[in-house]
Design brief:
By secondary structure, this protein is α+β, with helices and mostly antiparallel strands. It has helices at about 20-35, 40-45, 100-115, 130-135, 165-170; strands at about 10, 65-70, 70-80, 85-95, 120-125, 140-150, 155-165. It has a single domain (about 5-170), classed as Aminopeptidase. It has a seven-stranded mixed β-sheet, sandwiched between helices.
Length: about 170
């Protein structure tokens, strides 16, 4: 059976958040080195040792879903519902597992987790063209441009996007 059909998605136990570190270290290096350089990304990766996992899980109201293939975490998403909106971030999938439907399943799980929310919002780096395309295909529409502080003092151009929950879950 191919990798495409051998993965599971589950809600992560908050006590196990440190198990995200290998996925994030790889994903951050692949994603951010071309724009930020090796030295800054090395500093960014060091923040994964902090309790908030590099700032991705700063509070206790976030929900983390993980995708696993043969007990290896190959993807994750972080979300929280606030004031009727599901906010999404920390959405990473290892390159070798991309384009297998994992992202769609993680996205739907995160949105359905917060069933009282009417819409979903996220911010994506402008340079992450594959991610912008993925979110657009999932029903997200650009709402404006912004600067995203990826690391203290390191701002990158980004796009704010939103979608209705119905749009996401019926694709």
């Amino acid at each position: 059976m191919s990798k495409q059909h051998c993965f599971s998605i589950s809600k992560m136990n908050p006590a196990r958040r440190s198990t995200l570190r290998p996925l994030l270290q790889t994903s951050w290096s692949e994603t951010y080195v071309p724009e930020l350089g090796q030295d800054i990304v090395a500093e960014l990766v060091e923040t994964l040792a902090h309790e908030d996992i590099g700032g991705l899980i700063p509070n206790n109201d976030e929900t983390v879903f993980v995708a696993k293939h043969q007990n290896q975490i190959c993807g994750c998403s972080v979300s929280a519902a606030r004031n009727g909106v599901t906010y999404l971030w920390g959405f990473y999938i290892l390159r070798e597992f991309q384009r297998m439907g994992i992202g769609q399943r993680l996205l739907k799980k995160a949105v359905l987790e917060h069933d009282h929310a009417n819409s979903a919002q996220l911010t994506v780096l402008t340079s992450s063209t594959a991610a912008v395309k993925f979110y657009s295909t999932a029903g997200f529409k650009p709402q404006g441009k912004t600067e995203f502080e990826i690391f203290p003092g390191q701002q990158l151009p980004a796009i704010q996007m939103s979608a209705s929950v119905r749009e996401i879950t019926h694709k």
